[in-house]
């Protein structure tokens, strides 16, 4: 018997509530079963998930294109999970080391 089948009725409702919120605005979760199992284990143990997001900005600033994943990260936080935002400032500064992409130019320390 898996973790989901072992959940109490109350915990099962909480699992469904969290999944409904997380699925909102998402085309597909890959692999969804793994996420479901992790959330179920989190609810069962009372230990929050640790959700990490790493960004390597292509400019000195984070831009509106990052808001989609930042909002999803906030949803996890609102559900009681721990979130960690990691910004790769060095990778943002070096840009595209191959020189093939004009959109990721090398930045100076002042940028």
What can you tell me about this protein's structure?
It contains five helices and two strands; from the N terminus they run H-H-H-E-H-E-H. The protein has helices spanning 3-6, 9-23, 32-45, 67-78, 89-94, and strands spanning 50-55, 82-87. It folds into two domains: 8-47; 48-111, no CATH class. A two-stranded parallel ribbon has the order 1-2. Helix 2 packs across helix 3 (32-45). It has 111 residues and is mainly α. 46% of the residues lie in helices and 11% in strands. It is elongated and about 55 Å long.
Order of helices and strands: HHHEHEH
- Helix percentage range: 40-55%
Report mean pLDDT, rounded to a whole number. 85
How far the N terminus sits from the C terminus, by CA atoms, comes to 55 Å
Strand content: 5-15%
The count of β-strands is: 2
Order of strands, main sheet, comes to 1-2
Rg from Cα: 18 Å
Provide the structure class.
mainly alpha
Give the number of helices.
Answer: 5
Domain module tally: 2
What is the makeup of the main sheet? Answer: 2 strands, parallel
Provide a concise account of the structure shown.
Helices cover 46% and strands 11% of the residues.
Itemize the secondary structure elements and their pairings:
Elements lengths: L2 H4 L2 H15 L8 H14 L4 E6 L11 H12 L3 E6 L1 H6 L17
Parallel strand pairs: 1-2
Helix pairs in contact: 2-3
List keywords for this structure.
111 residues, mainly alpha, 2 domains, two-stranded parallel sheet, 46% helix
């Amino acid at each position: 018997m898996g973790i989901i089948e072992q959940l109490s009725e109350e915990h099962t409702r909480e699992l469904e509530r969290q999944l409904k919120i997380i699925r909102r605005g998402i085309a597909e979760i890959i692999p969804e079963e793994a996420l479901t199992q992790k959330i179920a284990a989190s609810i069962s143990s009372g230990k929050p998930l640790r959700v990490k997001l790493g960004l390597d900005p292509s400019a000195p600033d984070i831009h509106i294109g990052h808001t989609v994943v930042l909002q999803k990260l906030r949803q996890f936080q609102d559900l009681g999970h721990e979130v960690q935002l990691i910004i790769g400032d060095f990778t943002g500064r070096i840009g595209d080391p191959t020189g093939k992409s004009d959109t990721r130019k090398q930045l100076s320390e002042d940028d």
